[in-house]
Design brief:
Elements (H helix, E strand, L loop, with lengths): L20 E3 L6 E3 L13 H13 L4 H10 L6 H26 L4 E8 L3 H12 L17 E9 L2 E9 L3 H9 L10 E4 L13 E4 L1 H10 L5 H23 L4 H11 L1 H16 L8 H11 L1 H4 L13 H17 L5 H20 L3 H6 L1
Parallel strand pairs: 3-6, 6-7
Antiparallel strand pairs: 1-2, 3-4, 4-5
Helix pairs in contact: 1-3, 1-13, 2-3, 3-13, 7-8
Length: about 375
């Protein structure tokens, strides 16, 4: 049999070593006993930085809360000390972050989206600029943009998934452009999956654009209570498409086999859906300015991008993987509320990128950060 016994302990433990000191009576030099073998002289080792980073940026536990917890468990660890530890660790890990960016640029499919964030340092500069009646100079690319965002970029290639986070003035498309700038010249344009917002596009860089089918579906879910019959028809059609995609994953079909399968099984369903959507306006069955009409218009205007999976091997159905990645950012935002400085945001991006990439790849983020 196997016995499993789980015990509780502080997130960060401390061991006190009392080293005897002797002073020479003749010269006054002090001799200190050596610590036990394997025990370094530094107070905080690599596991401390890994645990603090994992709690703060992986689980959304603010420094002040961890400070209170450690104080109650009689192993004090001030919030300022926690920041010093993760800041020092970030400088050592930045090479891995940059390599993730380089490898993500070579992906076959890239997903991107963003969410709002607060950086107090930038907000303070904006207030001072207004008070002095000066034009803001902190905006992205010299603009007067005042919004702040965290962009999530997920890159996939041959089953490998990489997640990157970027916090600042730039939108998701601008951050994706910076990533793809490191793409090898011999590679063709990647498939880009995002929602229908123009700010998600990487400027003049070429991508094979696909739009999120889940975003379009959600618009019909939101108005289901008012237009149940019409919405049910759309949802049932999309249900078939998602079921087919699940079948393709279960059968471990290659991208080309998956494309042929969708063309045979999902293609007729999507063609009937397109005919039905068009008829709603042609026969004046739905008012275009109604909420249902807006949902139909959204889908028709992006039909080509929403159905890329019927024409391009490897094209995904939705942007859910990027949406899930941004939950890491949203969890931090709900608990810590803001970043104090741009440097703090940079450290958060680095830790979140490494932690979530580890989770996507099935690696232990604590062990990785420690190494």
């Amino acid at each position: 049999g196997v016995l499993v016994r789980i015990v509780g302990q502080p997130p960060l433990q401390a061991t006190v070593y009392k080293l005897q000191k002797l002073r020479c009576i003749l010269c006054g030099e002090v001799f200190t006993a050596k610590p036990p073998e394997g025990v370094g002289l530094e107070k905080y080792d690599a596991t401390a930085a890994a645990m603090i980073g994992l709690l703060k940026y992986g689980s959304g536990l603010p420094f002040n809360r961890l400070q209170g917890l450690q104080r109650n468990l009689e192993i004090p660890l001030p919030a300022s000390t926690q920041w010093d530890i993760v800041h020092a660790a970030a400088d050592e890990m930045i090479a891995a972050y940059r390599e993730l960016i380089r490898q993500a640029a070579q992906g076959d499919v890239v997903y991107n989206d963003d969410t709002t964030i607060k950086i107090l340092e930038l907000m303070g500069k904006r207030v001072r600029q207004r008070a002095l009646a000066q034009d803001p100079t902190e905006g992205a690319q010299g603009s007067d943009r005042t919004g702040m965002f965290t962009s999530g970029v997920v890159s996939t290639r041959e089953g490998r998934r990489i997640t990157l986070f970027f916090t600042g003035r730039q939108h998701a498309g601008e951050n994706l452009k910076d990533v793809l700038a490191e793409r090898a010249a011999e590679l063709g344009p990647p498939i880009q999956m995002c929602d229908g917002l123009s700010r998600n596009l990487p400027g003049e860089l070429e991508t094979i654009l696909a739009n999120c089918l889940a975003h379009s579906r959600r618009k019909f879910v939101d108005v289901f209570d008012h237009f149940s019959e019409e919405c049910r028809y759309v949802l049932e059609a999309l249900k078939v498409v998602y079921k087919n995609d699940a079948t393709a994953r279960e059968q471990m079909l290659s991208p080309e086999e998956r494309l042929s399968f969708h063309q045979a099984e999902s293609g007729p369903v999507m063609e009937e859906l397109h005919t039905w959507l068009t008829r709603q306006f042609d026969e004046h069955l739905v008012e275009p300015n109604s909420v249902l009409g807006e949902a139909i218009t959204y889908m028709l205007n992006r039909w080509k991008e929403l159905t890329l999976f019927l024409r391009q091997a490897g094209a995904p159905l939705d942007n859910n993987i990027a949406e899930r990645a941004l939950k890491k950012v949203i969890l931090h935002r709900k608990n810590a509320l803001f970043f104090k400085t741009e440097n703090g945001a940079r450290v958060g991006d680095l830790f979140m990128s490494l932690i979530y990439t580890c989770e996507l790849c099935g690696a232990n983020p604590f062990d990785y950060l420690t190494e």
